[in-house]
From TrEMBL:
Cellular component, GO annotation: cytoplasm; extracellular space
Organism from which the protein derives: Strigops habroptila
Record key words, sorted: Acetylation, Cytoplasm, Lyase, Melanin biosynthesis
Name of a matching Pfam family: MIF
Record family assignment: Belongs to the MIF family.
The protein's name in its UniProt record: D-dopachrome decarboxylase
Enzyme Commission number(s): 4.1.1.84
Length: 118
């Protein structure tokens, strides 16, 4: 069950209208998970600094069970997420940062229990 959180200082009006849905589809493909399991949050217009500059930027947090736990996996994921984000946001790769967090099933609650028991 992947979770994507995209923070950007770009104003909402500069983002593609279907950005959250497009990120959902991209994450499903990149991480090999069904889109029905992907959760996406987009926050725009935030005060942000990346690499010491408040110029337009974005940070993506990708959390998931089993698919973001190694440097090799994340190197592949990173390249593909950067392709999506640079195209969707119109930012250069130097203005985007991606953080990967592996999760365990007991860390995600759903349907009044945790994923361990589903």
């Amino acid at each position: 069950m992947p979770f994507l959180e995209l923070d950007t200082n770009l104003p909402d009006g500069q983002l593609p209208p279907a950005l959250a849905q497009d990120l959902c589809a991209a994450a499903a493909d990149i991480l090999g998970k069904p889109a029905e399991r992907v959760n996406v949050t987009v926050r725009s217009g935030l005060p942000m600094v990346v690499a010491g500059s408040a110029e337009p930027c974005a940070q993506l947090l990708v959390s998931s069970i089993g698919v973001v736990g190694s440097a090799e996996q994340n190197q592949r994921h990173s390249a593909r997420f950067f392709d999506v984000l640079t195209a969707q946001l119109g930012l250069g790769p130097e203005r985007i940062v991606i953080r990967f967090y592996p999760m365990e099933p007991w860390q995600i609650g759903k349907n009044r229990t945790v994923m361990t028991f589903l």
